[in-house]
Amino acid sequence: MNRFITGLNILLVILVAVGSFVLSYSALSDLASKNGFLDWRAYVLPLVIDVGMLAFGLAVVHAHLHSTNPLRRRGLNLAYIIATVTFNIVHAPNNLLAQSMAALPPVTLFFTFEVLMAMIEHNIKQRIGKAALASHQAALLEAQRGFSEIIAQIEAIKEQHKAELAEHDSQLSELQRRLEIALDPVKARREDILIRIQSDNPPTQKELAEIWGVSTQTIQTDIKALNGSVVK
Known about the structure:
The protein is mostly helical. It has seven helices and no strands. The protein folds into two domains: 2-142; 184-232. The protein starts with a helix and ends in a 6-residue tail after the last helix.
């Protein structure tokens, strides 16, 4: 619905602009032919004036779209507006009503063209804004993906460090066990025997002897030395 209204508005503005241009062109052409512009020149002069006004109006819109100073272009645009309005009034009969009616087509042409250019400028800026928004959203999504990848890498590094730390702890425990064995092998053996025989699946004395490389009598002595720590 919005597109239909916009399209209809543009069509009506164009129709009014074309009608105003034809009326202004006719008056300027007749005025030129009566004031020394004969043959083809009488048809070209109105184009120079009215099309020049429209061209400088378009230049003003171009300046707005590119964020440049439109003052000089607006000045040229106003000069051509004044020229076409003046010539249309001069061409009219010498009374206020006729002169007012003669001034209406070029003034209408100017305002309809301004309205049309404003609509086009608004549409262009709206499209540029949408494109910029889409670009920003794409950049944001890309940044989010990059951030997610960084977080995933950090988590992977943390897990790797945890695994390495666990391995280091295991190695440290093994070194401590070996150190204890080296310093007090009997105590270390008995502590290990205590842990093993209190497990859910305790080994036999023969298996303990094989693990520690001692005789079963030594294992029996160790178990007796543990006293109440072991449930026999």
